[in-house]
């Protein structure tokens, strides 16, 4: 097979996966897809509630969809962060209109009150308060030093890494931004040395240090929740952001990490999936090695460019006042 034909075959592999599993062509009514649409709808209302001057009665069609979707999912027992977020957002939507003494059409107000009355507790969702001082207090540390001491580590103690430390890092990385607030990121963790070594056989960049890793992680993204053509590459964007957030979270816990590149062809990708039962509807983003740091070690200098080498200023030019095409979100 020529290089061009092999390249086409691998692009076709990615295309077929997205075509089959995403919501772009396959407009599935599965609970996962409905929960994704629900999340997108209630996040739209959340964004409206955080504006400096929210409009009264905004987002009615989305609100009515949220109510239908939450009830449908709860009816089949598919309660999740999406249904709780939907209920919490409608609770806050009602609270916003009441606090500002905004009147609602009688039928719409009844629909909202009936829905809110179904919940026996306060749910997360809507808008929350944040002060500048809270941000200042949380960021009063030497961030430059923090990022400059994060390196790709190739020298580990060989000590095991506890599942609790990985779980803590994942819980922190969850706050990494993702499109429309949908939770598509997944992490598979191998702690047992035999399993660790088995996972690493499918990745070819761990020679000389892989046997001393305390854990190996596989990061994936669920593509069933993407439903527009423009999101055809979103799995790698959301997954990549999450991987970096996880990397920083592990660094903050004084653990060494090494991104283990998954630039794999379709045969290599299928082999890893088969070995560890990774679903076809998940895109494998990267692996990550994690381990204990020795007291002293060498890291690659990796000279970096200065900011001016990669930063460009967008300046006004003739004809730049044209109206951009309308988007869906």
From TrEMBL:
Task: Name the InterPro entries on file.
Answer: Nitroreductase, Nitroreductase-like
Highest taxon in the source lineage: Eukaryota
Q: Where is the Nitroreductase domain?
A: 148-203
Task: Extract the signal peptide range.
Answer: none
Q: Name one GO molecular function term.
A: oxidoreductase activity
Tell me any Pfam family this protein matches: Nitroreductase
Q: What is this protein called?
A: Nitroreductase
Q: Which organism is it from?
A: Aspergillus eucalypticola (strain CBS 122712 / IBT 29274)
């Amino acid at each position: 097979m020529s290089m061009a034909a092999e390249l086409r075959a691998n692009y076709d592999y990615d295309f077929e996966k997205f075509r089959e599993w995403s919501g772009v062509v396959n407009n599935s009514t599965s609970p996962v897809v409905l929960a994704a649409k629900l999340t997108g709808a209630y996040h739209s209302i959340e964004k409206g509630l955080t504006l400096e001057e929210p409009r009264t009665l905004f987002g009615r069609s989305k609100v009515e969809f949220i109510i239908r979707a939450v009830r449908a999912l709860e009816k089949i027992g598919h309660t999740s962060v999406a249904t709780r977020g939907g209920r919490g957002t409608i609770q806050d939507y009602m609270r916003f209109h009441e606090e500002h003494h905004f009147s609602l059409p009688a039928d719409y107000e009844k629909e909202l009150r009936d829905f809110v009355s179904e919940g026996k507790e306060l749910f997360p969702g809507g808008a929350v308060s944040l002060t500048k001082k809270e941000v200042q207090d949380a960021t009063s540390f030497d961030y430059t030093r923090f990022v400059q001491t994060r390196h790709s580590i190739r020298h580990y103690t060989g000590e095991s890494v506890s599942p609790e430390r990985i779980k803590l890092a994942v819980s922190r990385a969850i706050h990494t931004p993702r499109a429309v607030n949908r939770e598509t990121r997944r992490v598979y963790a191998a702690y047992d040395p035999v399993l660790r070594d088995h996972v690493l056989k499918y990745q070819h960049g761990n020679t000389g240090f892989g046997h001393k890793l305390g854990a190996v992680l596989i990061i994936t993204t669920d593509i069933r929740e993407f439903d527009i053509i423009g999101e055809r590459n979103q799995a790698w964007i959301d997954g990549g952001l999450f991987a970096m957030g996880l990397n920083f979270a592990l660094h903050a816990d004084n653990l060494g990490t090494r991104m283990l590149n998954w630039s794999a062809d379709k045969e290599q990708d299928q082999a890893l999936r088969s070995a560890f039962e990774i679903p076809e509807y998940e895109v494998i983003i990267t692996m990550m090695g994690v381990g204990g740091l020795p007291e002293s070690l060498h890291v690659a200098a990796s000279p970096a460019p200065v900011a001016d080498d990669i930063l460009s200023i967008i300046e006004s030019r003739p004809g730049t006042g044209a109206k951009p095409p309308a988007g869906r979100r």
